Amino acid sequence: MIKHVIFDFDGTIVESRYLTVELLNELAPKYRLREIKEDEYEYLRSLSIPQRCRAINLPFYKLPLLKHELTQKYRRATRSLQANKGMKEVLQQLKAKGLALSIISSNSANNIKDFLDHNNINLFDNIISSGGIFGKDKAIGVFLARHSLSSSEVIYVGDECRDIVACRKNNIGVIAVTWGYDAEELLADCGPDLLAQNPSEICDFILCQM
């Protein structure tokens, strides 16, 4: 029975895709990246992370350094971001049903808290940064152990294939949303338990398992 729902942040709760592209283009001269054009957004969503790196001329070994600088620059813009339509209501409904809610994200905890405070979304029991882009599986494992949660009591909601992979490594259920960073076709190939087309489907799926 589901007792705890863990959410990703960027792309899932908050619409930050265009900010990310804006910041990448701002840093393009420093990292010698190819600038991303507006008509490329959807195409890039259909690519894996290594493929995206190649598409913008980013050596994979520079990704952690770039991610660190992006996170720092992101802080300036957190209050200009908006929650994805319907997500605040979903969070409120799940909380009202007695479910514990947490965030595990590769963004910084300070950035996430700043956004949530500004938007009066004070519904989360835990906000955790997984640090590196590919460290989410370890963060989830530590979280489960620390809170004495079995895999059947937890479900994760994310928007990227790496979220699905991290959940499978921990044997927990995962809902993938189609409005985030990865395209629907890419997510479908990774085999989530649910591919949500709109926020209300998240609630319906989880509440059926309580």
UniProtKB/TrEMBL annotation:
One of its GO terms (cellular component) is cytosol. Gene3D superfamilies: HAD superfamily/HAD-like, Putative phosphatase, domain 2. It holds the Pfam family HAD_2. GO terms for biological process: DNA repair. This is Phosphoglycolate phosphatase. GO terms for molecular function: phosphoglycolate phosphatase activity. NCBIfam families: HAD-SF-IA-v1 (TIGR01549).
